[in-house]
Amino acid sequence: MSAELKRDYEIGAEIGRGRFGVVHRCTSRATGEAFAVKSVDRSQLADDLDRELAELEPKLAQLAGAGNPGVVQTHAVYEDETWTHTVMDLCTGPDLLEWVGLRRGAPVPEPVAAAIVAQVAQALALCHRRGVAHRDVKPDNILIAGNDGEDEEEDGGEAEAEAETAPRVRLADFGSAAWVGAGGLGRAEGLVGTPHYVAPEVVGGGEYGAKADVWSAGVVMYALLSGGALPFGGESAAEVLAAVLRGSVRFPPRLFSGVSPAAKDLMRRMICRDEWRRFTAEQVLGESSVPPQSGSLLLPLISPCFSLIVQVSNKSGVRNNAAHPWIVSGGGARGMERPA
């Protein structure tokens, strides 16, 4: 490992391993604060695309995360001839995939799912405004912040759904991210992502934009409300990708009979095969809830709390910029029978 990294941080146990690198726990020698460090050996990357992604990851993660509370923060980057070490927040909670799995097939209540989707959309909206497309949005890359979600009853009690508190979530792992230009209006290329969550325009080849992330976030929403089921399946990656290309979203009654029409409407707008008709991240939650740019920088720090998103959206009074009714209502059952 880098001598400079070891000078500044005490390296601890391995806590994770991915396609590109390994993650260790580390502790700042100056403050004693705990972090995580992701180390990538660039000399082991034989593919040109992999090398490009490994080089871009820390830069795009810093750009996407600065002042964006919905993204795991990058604190330092160390590079030498072969290694890149990225020091980031240590997230001790589970990821969203594990969190959904703990429910053992029970769907996430709509108010809780609405809060999670709003947080993910807010994080993505800020990323896209800064020109960063994540390109691998999935439950594995959405982390539960702190110890949220760990205080639920372990005895299988019959707690009311409305009493369940939504966890605070943060988007992680920019190892597949791409620069798509200021405002997120540019294009990227390359088959990058995870088969069940990747957008059809990515699978089809050619160029695509930041809306590919919205498709993936819509699939995450589908998984939350269905108790873990996914809209596109198959016995092999090729079959899954073929289903994605067809892009036909269905809501089987056995899984979605209790899901509101507005929730289904929002999923259709996010998991929309036609990229030009698909919602942007800002349209999911309302453009007015994302602060405007000042020059090339976003106005600093917006609250990750869903309650604030709703308050800002309600106060805006601009209907064409309003959030989708399912988001505004917090997944409530009333006032959603005629979605916008």
In DSSP terms, counting alpha (H) and pi (I) runs of 4 or more, how many helices? 12
Elements, N to C (H/E)? HEEEHEEHHEEEEEHEHHHHHEEHH
Find the CATH topology of the largest domain.
Transferase(Phosphotransferase), domain 1
| Mean pLDDT rating | 82
The major beta sheet can be summarized as: 5 strands, antiparallel
How far apart are the first and last residues' alpha carbons, in Å?
54 Å
Gross morphology is globular
- Going across the major beta sheet, what is the strand order? 1-2-3-5-4
- CATH architectural arrangement of the largest domain: Orthogonal Bundle
Q: What is the alpha-carbon Rg in Å? A: 20 Å
Number of strands: 13
Low-pLDDT residue intervals, each spanning 5 or more residues: 148-162, 287-320, 333-340
How many structural domains can be distinguished in the coordinates?
A: 2
Helix content: 25-40%
The CATH superfamily of the largest domain turns out to be Transferase(Phosphotransferase) domain 1
Q: Report the portion of residues in β strands.
A: 15-25%
Overall CATH class of the largest domain: Mainly Alpha
**Which class do the helix and strand fractions yield?**
alpha+beta
